[in-house]
């Protein structure tokens, strides 16, 4: 959700800024812009739409020698995606880029306007630059002005600001939105994610909330409130590679194909013969834990929902799920005997992060299941299980979900071992199924071809119902989310048994039902529910190991005796179906409209 890049040094500034934005574009792609300062003059460039527009527009722009630059790729929150609303925002002598939301911008704007500031955009961000300039004029001290500016801002932000009057500084501040300072041989770098720092530096300072300061060629000045803080640099993970499409049409397609391999990575070192071993979890973390409270958003929320079936069935442990944005504003009754588990691919989702802080304040032990080490959620939680999916660039989450499910399955078995809720033979069966899981995620060419051909029949209609029961109900929710995100067709996930309590009224030949028909769980019940829809003429695509003659279309999965293996195979089928429908509709699969990868605003 918005990406920020900054650079100070002697290398090609424009190239560094644009390359950095390319790495972060998945975070927001409504517009992009950058500002370069050389010899005390700032030039800014902006373009609406994808980054390529900005790249073309600035082909002739050159920079040489020492300079500073800040850049931004935007996901609109306040104001339409226009050039005027694109960052950087400017005052008379300074420019700013910002990720997050300034909650008190209306009152700040009114005040600044009444004092003569002229606003050009509809954004909340613009108040920062006018406020700074007003304070800079008053104090005649840019650092003091920046400090005072930050003090007056409420909300969430990662900010970079440059000022023509101090041409060798970049000011920065962070609260609630990620920001890192990369320390490289060719200068200082800033980025919202270390993906943009790879290849430029080996170490970065992961800023904590409440930090602000400035960098100059000679120094890095870091403060928390009024107190100076010593910066602590950490190595950027060596495994972090800049993701490339490697011959696939889209990152999402590549990431679907990668699932078999990354699931193997998720399991690495975590299975010991017939036992689960999670060395990241200190034995005491589970001491006194009687129930789990899982909290997440979107796809990660679906993983949480699916895992409750595993925690109940395998660990015999109560597991309750919360949507983070709802949880935050309730007055939840929390018990110290609950372990609070947050699930997040990015580790930066604002609502999930705040929910985590709430649970900590209430005295609960906390565990993060996350894909990004050093992310805000990882740093906040008491313990973390990394999902090891690698960088996920497609906005529609695929391999992150697959690995989250695996970590949750592992956790359910760890608890089962501790509480002895599974006899050794059953535990061994679970572990054998787990070891086999990466294989069922391999995509057979024939299956992908078949889905490609079938997809042309599912490009219209008045809606899709993805239906399933038990574990396959949250999977149906996830299948529907994938389709609507990238095809813009209306799709809903529903528990199959609930259809007759209302939604079946929608059934006709233009209503598409995607039915998950596993062989291992509630087979007959599920068939009856599907037949009820077919009797009302709903066009039906059945997915499962047994051919279902009554359905209009059928996609096969392998017969197996473990529901999680069916779960994974059906997950891949639905991901490919959404992908192929979206491609046929001519959509940008990786950067669907209105979305962004990492939702750092509430
Ligand atoms: C959907 C998707 C989103 C995210 C949600 C939470 O494909 O990716 O629904 O799952 O925004 O994000 P994380 O997992 O980063 O907290």
Give a structural overview.
With 602 residues, this protein is of the alpha/beta class. It has three domains: 237 residues, Glutamine Phosphoribosylpyrophosphate, subunit 1, domain 1 (4-Layer Sandwich); 197 residues, Glucose-6-phosphate isomerase like protein, domain 1 (Rossmann fold, 3-Layer(aba) Sandwich); 145 residues, 3-Layer(aba) Sandwich (Rossmann fold), CATH 3.40.50.10490. Helices cover 35% and strands 25% of the residues. The chain has an eight-stranded antiparallel beta sheet with strand order 3-2-4-1-10-9-11-15. Strand 23, helix 14 and strand 24 form a beta-alpha-beta unit. It is globular. The mean pLDDT is 93. Fructose -6-phosphate binds next to helix 7 and helix 14. The site of fructose -6-phosphate has 15 residues, from helix 7 and helix 14.
Distance between the termini: 11 Å
SS-based structural class? alpha/beta
In total, the number of domains comes to 3
Overall body shape = globular
Tell me the CATH superfamily of the largest domain: Aminohydrolase, N-terminal nucleophile (Ntn) domain
The major beta sheet can be summarized as:
8 strands, antiparallel
Indicate the CATH class of the largest domain. Alpha Beta
Number of strands: 27
Task: Report the helical percentage.
Answer: 25-40%
Q: What is the second-level CATH architecture of the largest domain?
A: 4-Layer Sandwich
Low-pLDDT residue spans = none
Give Rg in angstroms: 25 Å
Task: Give the averaged pLDDT, no decimals.
Answer: 93
Number of helices: 16
């Amino acid at each position: 959700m918005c990406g920020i890049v900054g650079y100070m040094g002697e290398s090609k500034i424009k190239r560094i800024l644009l390359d950095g934005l390319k790495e972060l574009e998945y975070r927001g792609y409504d517009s992009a812009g950058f500002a370069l300062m050389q010899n005390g003059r700032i030039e800014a460039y902006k373009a609406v739409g994808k980054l390529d527009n900005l790249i073309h527009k600035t082909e002739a722009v050159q920079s040489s020698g020492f300079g500073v630059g800040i850049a931004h790729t935007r996901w609109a929150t306040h104001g339409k995606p226009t050039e005027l609303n694109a960052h950087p925002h400017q005052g008379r002598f300074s420019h700013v880029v910002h990720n997050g939301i300034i909650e008190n911008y209306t009152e700040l704007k009114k005040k600044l306007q009444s004092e003569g500031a002229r606003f050009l955009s509809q954004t909340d961000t613009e108040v920062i630059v006018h406020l700074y300039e007003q304070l800079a004029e008053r104090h005649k001290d840019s650092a003091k002005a920046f400090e005072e500016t930050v003090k007056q801002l409420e909300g969430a932000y990662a900010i970079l600001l440059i000022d023509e009057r101090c041409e060798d500084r970049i000011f920065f501040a962070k609260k609630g939105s990620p920001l890192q300072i990369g320390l490289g041989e060719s200068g200082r770098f800033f980025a919202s994610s270390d993906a943009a720092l790879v290849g430029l530096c080996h170490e970065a300072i992961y800023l904590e909330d409440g930090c602000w300061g400035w960098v100059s060629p000679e120094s890095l000045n870091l403060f928390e409130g009024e107190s100076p803080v010593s910066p602590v640099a950490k190595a950027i993970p060596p495994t972090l590679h800049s993701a490339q499409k490697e011959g696939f049409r889209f990152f999402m397609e590549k990431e679907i194909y990668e699932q078999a391999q990354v699931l193997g990575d998720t399991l690495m070192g975590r299975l010991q013969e017939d036992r689960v071993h999670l060395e990241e979890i200190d034995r005491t973390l589970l001491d006194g834990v009687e129930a789990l409270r899982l909290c997440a958003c979107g796809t990660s929320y679906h993983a949480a929902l699916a895992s409750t079936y595993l925690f109940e069935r395998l660990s015999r442990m109560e597991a309750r799920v919360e949507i983070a944005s709802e949880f935050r504003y309730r007055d939840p009754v929390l018990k110290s005997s609950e372990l609070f588990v947050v699930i997040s691919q990015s580790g930066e989702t604002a609502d999930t992060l705040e929910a985590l802080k709430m649970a900590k304040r209430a005295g609960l032990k906390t565990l993060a299941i996350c894909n990004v080490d050093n992310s805000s959620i990882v740093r906040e939680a008491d313990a973390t299980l990394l999902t090891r999916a690698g960088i996920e660039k497609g906005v529609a989450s695929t391999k992150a979900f697959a690995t989250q499910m695996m970590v949750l399955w592992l956790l359910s078995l760890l608890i089962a071992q501790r509480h002895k809720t599974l006899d050794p033979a059953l535990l061994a069966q679970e572990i054998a199924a787990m070891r086999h899981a990466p294989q069922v995620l391999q995509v057979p060419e024939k299956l992908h071809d078949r889905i490609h051909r079938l997809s042309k029949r599912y490009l219209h209609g008045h809606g899709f119902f993805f239906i399933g029961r038990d574990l396959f109900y949250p999977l149906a929710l996830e299948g529907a989310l994938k389709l609507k995100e990238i095809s813009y067709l209306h799709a809903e996930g529903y528990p199959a048994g609930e259809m007759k309590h209302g939604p079946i009224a929608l059934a006709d030949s233009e209503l598409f039902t995607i039915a998950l028909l596993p062989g291992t769980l509630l087979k007959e019940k599920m068939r009856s529910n599907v037949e009820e829809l077919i009797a009302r003429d709903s066009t039906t695509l059945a997915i499962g190991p047994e051919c279902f003659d009554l359905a209009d279309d059928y996609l096969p999965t392998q017969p197996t005796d473990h529901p999680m293996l069916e779960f994974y195979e059906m997950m891949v089928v639905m991901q490919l179906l959404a992908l192929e429908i979206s491609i046929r509709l001519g959509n940008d699969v990786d950067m669907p409209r209105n979305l962004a990868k990492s939702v750092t605003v509430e």
